[in-house]
Write a structure and sequence with these properties.
- This protein is α/β, with parallel strands linked by helices.
- It folds into two domains: about 220 residues, Rossmann fold (3-Layer(aba) Sandwich), CATH 3.40.50; about 180 residues, N-(1-d-carboxylethyl)-l-norvaline Dehydrogenase, domain 2 (Orthogonal Bundle).
- The chain contains 19 helices and eleven strands.
- The strands form two sheets. Strands 5-2-1-6-7-8-10-11 form an eight-stranded mixed β-sheet. Strands 4-3-9 form a three-stranded mixed β-sheet.
- β6, α5 and β7 form a beta-alpha-beta unit.
- α4 packs across α5, α16 crosses α17 and α16 crosses α19.
- The longest helix has 24 residues.
- The chain is globular.
- The protein starts with a strand and ends with a helix.
- The model has no long low-confidence stretch (mean pLDDT about 95).
Amino acid sequence: MAHLGLGAFHRAHQAWYTQRANDAGDSPWGIAAFTGRRPDVARALSAQDCQYTLVTRDASGDSTEHIRSIVAAHDGADADSWRRVLTDPAVTVVTLTVTEAAYGDTPVIRRLADGLAARRAAGAGPIAVVSCDNLPRNGAHTRRALLQASGGLADWLDDEVSFVDTVVDRITPATTDDDIAATGDPCTVVTEPFAEWYLSGEFPGGRPLWEACGARIVSDIDVFTRRKLWLLNAGHSLLAYAGLARGHAHIDEAMRDASCRRWLDELWDDVDPVLPLPPDEKEQARRTLVARFENPRIKHRLAQIARDGSEKLTERSAPIVAGRIRAGASPGTGQIRLWGAWLVHLRSRWTPDEDPGASAIAARARHDIDDGAAAVVDHLLPRDVAGEPRLNHLASAVAAAAAEIGGTP
């Protein structure tokens, strides 16, 4: 396998699943991993034979595992090594962990196109591209971005490359100095007990038996994508923006705030009529998320979650609002409050490096809260419902929600 985006989430998720598959008796698979932005992690891992400690942290204590599935770690800027790995016929899977903002004419997509073009030239055979992020139909997004970056690959992509859609989930907070001191391993990764991976697509050259350790291979992934985006990810965004405005730093702290907790329930209530799952499954999903969010020993930073809201909220909230409106319902009290919480963040805490795509919206928000609310609505409200007369006062409702949350200058 090859991997692009060597960060903590990959090491807590795909590398962990691969290690577990190897331990279950599968023919051992190794990962040649490449960093996405900076070379630091690759250098640190290479210095210790690419092995590291994974700490699984729940409310009662820690457990540790020694992960050995990464067999090579490279600087993502090392184009020669990237091409060498992608042109090896033995490499039949490439996984990606990138953010929503990476789908377009970006260095990540150009790097993937370069590696696949080299594979085509070498006649190295079929390969599966597995995108592991929070976009619905992320495999299709990857294929579309690749075609835009290099249209000359189109026929070969159709013949030799499969694009696998996934849903991935495992909360992986930033590792602290105390975590490293406890294990003695500078490459330590900390994660929660819960892990989930749904995959839908073909693997023409084979793959690890990830299902032996809990992954699920499914024919239709859409409902699982929506469940995660609209419950977990949207909940995270609300707690991040509202929690920061109310002086909190981590998810578990926001969960202990009675107002944030009530707002989270209202947000999830809005999802209920547009998420096509049995009521008991939705209720179980909510209970599971509450337990995960309340874990006092997983210090998931709100500032980390708050990044790239202009990209994330278009998938985490806008479809819920659109679905409710199409069904004749209101946009939803919880969804409006999420948009208001983002408006608060844009007015008081947003920085260009955390979300470059929000620059114009933030400028309007900081000049005037009402104009900022209109900018938020313009950005998030899907065009096919934007003309609904009953939405004429949506911007004022968003501004009122922002005022209720507080934290605006």
